[in-house]
From TrEMBL, chain A:
Pathway noted in the entry: Lipid metabolism; fatty acid biosynthesis
Organism field: Nannocystis pusilla
InterPro entries hit by this protein: ACP, ACP-like_sf, PP-bd_ACP
Name of this chain's protein: Acyl carrier protein
The Carrier domain, residue ranges: 4-79
NCBIfam families on file: acyl_carrier, PRK00982.1-1, PRK00982.1-2, PRK00982.1-4, PRK00982.1-5
Residue positions, PTM O-(pantetheine 4'-phosphoryl)serine: S39
Name of the coding gene: acpP
One Pfam family in the UniProt entry: PP-binding
BP GO terms, sorted: lipid A biosynthetic process
Automatic annotation (TrEMBL), chain B:
Family recorded in the similarity comment: Belongs to the thiolase-like superfamily. Beta-ketoacyl-ACP synthases family.
GO cellular component: cytosol
Residues annotated as domain Ketosynthase family 3 (KS3): 3-410
EC id: 2.3.1.179
Biological processes per GO annotation: fatty acid biosynthetic process
Pathways involved: Lipid metabolism; fatty acid biosynthesis
Protein name: 3-oxoacyl-[acyl-carrier-protein] synthase 2
Domain of life (superkingdom): Bacteria
Any GO MF annotation of the entry: 3-oxoacyl-[acyl-carrier-protein] synthase activity
Family annotation (Pfam families): ketoacyl-synt (PF00109), Ketoacyl-synt_C (PF02801)
SMART domains, per the entry: PKS_KS (SM00825)
Reactions catalysed: a fatty acyl-[ACP] + malonyl-[ACP] + H(+) = a 3-oxoacyl-[ACP] + holo-[ACP] + CO2; (9Z)-hexadecenoyl-[ACP] + malonyl-[ACP] + H(+) = 3-oxo-(11Z)-octadecenoyl-[ACP] + holo-[ACP] + CO2
Class of this enzyme: transferase
Length: 81, 412
């Protein structure tokens, strides 16, 4: 899976979960401040990433995933490892 | 109740008869049944395969799409009905939010999401099988909680849970709260959405449900000899209660005044009333006393009338309370049309009483083709009736032997 693939799929999941418009869902967007996610929505998002990309994201690492771009980078690193 | 007077200035109705106040009232006056085959799940293995399902409910009319899947259907109904009630009352945003509250309950709460989540827990395990929204999706008091968030109502907010009298108790408690000065405006009533395998199966297991699967619209037939159980139904019935002077000052349309409320317990059996309906009798008497009304003032009773054996008990209790006057007043069970909405039913039926007083029309008991000799009152059979009526009562009784009675008075 290329970085472009991961990016496309992450954006699709974020759009679906947080019900945001395509133009609003860019890599620099912060889930909480920009996309309206509360703590429960973040949990739901992380679980969706886990299921879709078949990885595990430990709770203590979730706080480092603040933007859409953070999620893409994290998932790319995890899938290589 | 001595204290401040309380007006009903808005209603919000969702039932198998329709989504919206006009839709419901029109169907009630037309004597239409909302009962049909179960479509929510495959009921082919059930002894009961009919229910009163709400049709054409689009939650996104009231709730952002991403939030819809964060809450069970009973909460969606409550949010929608509250929006309708507030609009119907022409309330606008609260001028003094701390004086605005919400008492909305449910008898069972979020069974459909509970059932689905249990399935996914078994399939996927705890980490991926349980949504972080699971708890707020199913707990009963998220119905009033969600309403308060959307309307900025910062006063008392809770759910009274008393099975099939939930809606009536919620309205009665809200009425007394306003009367004694604890709030100025309350959204109150009940909501329920449990046309699900566990709920239908559970009541079927008690042999409490009608099995008239081939004739769904005839299945809810209170007070008849051929009644064979209640018809499970769903929806939401809410009212806006408002301190009288406030309602008058803003020129609100007042459907009716709520004048009396009582709550009693049978202390008898988990599901059955005592043969003489003592708790129900006492409840009606106390509600009349609360209202400062003589039994002879009452022109209409919206009966609990579930289409079970207890219809005869309620009839006996009405005769005991009203004596000779029981032959003069009109009684109807609108459950013959909308079915039994469990925790929501008392809310819907209270709103129906208010509308009956406002429009001076009594909705009928349909399907009363073969009256039980033990049920020998004037049940407004088959069709609605245009009458002059000043005072209406609404009876609601629940498992656990809990009873509620509300009294309403015509304006003017």
């Amino acid at each position: 899976m290329t970085t472009a693939d991961i990016e496309k799929q992450v954006i699709e999941i974020v759009r679906e979960q947080l019900d945001v418009k395509p133009e609003d869902c860019t890599l620099d967007k912060i889930f909480t401040d920009d996309l309206g996610a509360d703590s429960l929505a973040i949990v739901e998002l992380v679980l969706a990433f886990e299921e879709h990309f078949e990885i595990k994201i430990p709770d203590e690492e979730v706080e480092n995933i603040k933007t859409v771009g953070d999620a893409v980078n994290y998932i790319r690193a995890r899938r290589k490892a | 109740m001595t204290g401040r007077r309380v007006a009903i200035t808005g209603v919000g109705l969702i039932s198998p008869l329709g989504v919206g106040n006009d839709e419901n009232w029109r169907s009630l006056c037309a004597g239409k049944s909302g009962i049909g085959p179960i479509t929510r799940f495959d009921a082919s293995a059930m002894t009961t395969r009919i229910a009163g399902e709400v049709r054409d409910f689009d939650p996104t009319r009231w709730i952002p799409k991403k939030e819809v899947r964060q809450m069970d259907l009973f909460i969606q109904y409550a949010i929608a009905a509250a929006a309708m009630a507030v609009e119907d009352a022409k309330l606008g945003p609260p001028d003094d939010p701390e004086r605005f509250g919400v008492y909305v309950g449910a008898g069972l709460g979020g069974l459909p999401v509970l059932e689905a989540t249990h399935d996914s827990l078994r399939e996927k395990g705890p980490r991926h099988g349980i949504s972080p929204y699971f708890v707020p999706a199913i707990i009963v008091n998220l119905a009033p909680g969600q309403i308060s968030i959307r309307h900025n109502y910062r006063g008392p907010n809770m759910s009274h849970v008393s099975a099939c009298s939930t809606g009536a108790h919620s309205i009665g408690e809200a009425f007394h709260l306003i009367a004694r000065g604890g709030a100025d405006v309350m959204i109150a009533g009940g909501t329920e959405a449990t046309v699900s395998p566990l709920c239908v199966g559970g009541f079927a297991s008690m042999r409490a449900l009608s099995t008239r699967n081939d004739e769904p619209t005839k299945a809810s037939r209170p007070f008849t000899l051929s009644r064979d159980g209640f018809v499970l139904s769903e929806g939401c019935g809410l009212v806006v209660l408002e301190e009288w002077e406030r309602a008058q000052a803003r020129g609100a349309r007042i459907y009716a005044e709520i004048v009396g409320y009582a709550a009693t317990s049978d202390a008898h059996h988990i599901t059955a009333p005592p043969p003489d309906g003592e708790g129900a009798q006492r409840c009606m008497r106390l509600a009349l006393r609360d209202a400062g009304l003589a039994p002879t003032a009452v022109g209409y009773i919206n009966a609990h009338g579930t289409s079970t054996g207890a219809d005869a008990t309620e009839t006996g209790a009405i005769k005991a309370v009203f004596g000779e006057h029981a032959r003069k007043l009109a009684v109807s069970s609108t459950k013959s049309m909308h079915g039994h909405l469990l925790g929501a039913t008392g809310g819907l039926e209270a709103a129906i009483c208010a509308l009956a007083l406002h429009y001076q029309v009594l909705p009928p008991t349909i399907n009363l083709d073969d009256p039980d000799p033990e049920c020998d009152l004037d049940y407004v059979p088959h069709g609605a009736r245009k009458v002059a009526v000043d005072v209406a009562l609404s009876n609601s009784f629940g498992f656990g032997g809990t009873n509620a009675c509300l009294a309403f008075k015509r304006v003017g």
